[in-house]
Amino acid sequence: MPDRSLPTHFPSGPPGRPTPHWRRSPGRSGTRPSSRSPGRSLARTASHPAASAAARLPWSSPPPSRTDLVPRYRPAVNRGFTRAGPAAPEPGDPRCCSRQRLAPRLDPALNPNAWHLSSTRCPARTLSSGSRPPVPGHNRRGLSVVRAEDSVMNVHYLARKARRFMAGVVQLSEHRDRPEGEPPVLAGRLPLVGHLPKLLKNPLAFLASLPKEDEVTTVFIGGQPIYFLTSHRLVRSLLTGKSGAFTRGLVFEKAAKVFGQGIIVSDGEQHHRNRRLIQPAFHQSKIEHYVEIMRSVVEKRTGAWEAGQPFTLNAETYETAVEVLTRTLFRSDLADRAAGNVKRAFPGIVAGISAQALYPFPWMEKLPLPVNRRYERSAALFHDVVKAVIAEQRKNPAQDDSLLGTLISARDEDNAFSEEQLRDETVTMLIAGAETVSTTLAWFFHELARHPEVEQRLVDELQTRLGDRPISFQDFRQLPYTAAAINEAVRLHHPNWFLSRRAVSSVTLGGHRIPAGGEVAFSPSTMNRDPEVFDDPLRFDPDRWLDGRTDDLPRSAYMPFGVGRHKCVGDTYALAELTVSIACIARRWKLTHQPGKRVREVPWTTVQPADLVMVAQPRRNA
Predict the structure, then answer these.
(1) Which of 312, 385, 390 is nearest to 344 (CA)?
(2) Which of 45, 140, 176, 419 could, after both became Cys, cross-link 133 (CB 3.0–4.6 A)?
(3) Nearby residues of 265 by Cβ (< 8 Å), 6 or more positions away
(4) CA 76 to chain centre
């Protein structure tokens, strides 16, 4: 192996001649000696602590004559020489940059090149400008020369610089000059993505952690500012405020690809007209008829359950809710075909709405991503199914007491729903009605299994008031504890975790200015768990609705179906379906959690229970 222990500079060489790059120490930048007298430079260098330590190292022996070095410059003579520099040192060589040899190389007392690995400026920088010592790893001015390929320590050096740069950018973004009165920006905003990583990591915990002092906090999803309301008083003001001040927001805009101009998405005069035409379909006389259909569907599906067989409860409640909706919405001969297609298309629609609402950049909706393409296919399938069913149902409108038949015959000053409007309203009821009711029902039985004392009181009430007869609409008022348990389940597990509105013009909320076009959002799920409103808010306690603790609550504290112009038009339908389902299931089956499963909240279009696997056992007196 050739001897590579050569000096790193040549004081006996001609003045101004640079150090050949093939003789530089491995992992170091070469230097050019001073153009002044070499003797004076070496005299000054002798006092350098690194230079005095270098005299003890093997490659700091007296330099050979230039004629002795010539063969070493030739690749034909010295295989260790290349134009790119000397060959890499082998393990065991004192110049090796392995982990075992790295620590001594960082000590300036042992290695004069250690200044290159440190962020500290070399002491040679303090010498007079007349002469600079040719310290290895520095330029003529004594500054450290750093290149990516020079040292293994450069990875850490660049990482430190990147962290400092990003911290500076974040600090500037958080303390930027805001227009007077604009809500404060939540700390921790990142460039490009804003607060989106924290929101996606744990959405409910993130929204619950928003500061309540200012009542309005700016959260960035990508570059889009979202003004979050943390006061239930401001939320009610937002929902019941002056007509035309706010329109439907970001979430509803993304859902319009499926819902069209249905009642859940439309606004203004269009929404008012749609609501006026739809309301007769949810009259009390209609609900009484729907209750009979609901009971027959639930009894049929739960009658097929196998004792002791585990099953995913939220999947079962969703299929039951879809079947209930299709049988009340369509004629019985068309319901089965529609139900199958709805179940196939629904997952793609839910995933598409959720993903596009949280995209940090709007142009991502147009990318050929799997979720986007599935969303488009599912929406097209949904629309085709609904249009086909409407066309079939129009052929025989006589004696049609279904919900869709009511919509077809609805008139407003001799004007009826168009084909497109009928499709949009039908799609809205199928998606919104099935998702919210099924989710609430799954959470209800989850809490019932966790609280046996609540379950026993509920079953006792059902058996005392109903006996063995089937439930009817007239029985609802005789079940106060059941109604309180439903209210508590909706409070603790509200299906909607993110809703928004868009300001038409500049407005003021809570003393903060919201610019025109600003997205104003709120979270019903976190508002219903506010400890300032509800005592012990995370506890499932139906008695809070019976013992007077909630009598003095402000009207804005609990809004299960919304308020104002956009209050849910099918709230009585949803409560009827929940009551019928609970009465049919709880009197016949006792549901318990499968051991080893941990139920988690997963915010999607609604807050879904993950891993809710339960086991059904028949009740002894059923």
Answers:
(1) 385
(2) 45
(3) 248, 252, 255, 256, 259, 424, 428
(4) 63
Q: What is the C-alpha separation between 24 and 179, in angstroms, rounded? A: 57
Q: Of 550, 520, 551, which is closest to residue 537 (Cα–Cα)?
A: 550
Give the architecture-level CATH label for domain 275-489+562-618. Answer: Orthogonal Bundle (1.10)
**CB-based contacts of 159: which residues, under 8 Å, 6+ apart?**
none
Token digits of residue 444: 């209800």
Q: Which two tokens stand for residue 295?
A: 């009971």
Strands 499-503 and 246-248: antiparallel
- Chunked into runs of 10 residues, the chain (622 residues) has average pLDDT values of 44 46 44 43 44 44 49 50 47 47 53 48 40 48 48 63 64 53 89 90 93 91 92 90 80 82 86 88 91 95 93 94 90 76 82 81 87 89 87 74 84 78 88 90 97 96 93 95 97 92 90 92 93 93 93 88 88 95 96 93 90 93 62
CA 164 – CA 146 distance, rounded (Å) = 18
Type of residue at 384: D
User: CA-CA-CA-CA torsion for 544, 549, 551, 556, nearest 10 degrees?
Assistant: -80
Residue 522: closest CA among 173, 123, 233, 110: 233
> How far apart are the two ends of the chain, measured CA to CA in Å?
92
How far is C-alpha 164 from the geometric centre of its chain's CA atoms?
26
Helix (H) or strand (E) run with residue 519 in it:
strand 519-522
Q: Please indicate, yes or no, whether the overall pTM of this predicted structure exceeds 0.85.
A: no
The per-residue b/e assignment along 369-405, b for 16 or more CB within 10 angstroms, e otherwise, is: eeebebbeebbebbbebbbebbeebeeeeeebebbbb
Residues 473 and 580 sit within 8 Å (Cβ to Cβ): no
| Domain ranges for the chain | 1-152, 275-489+562-618
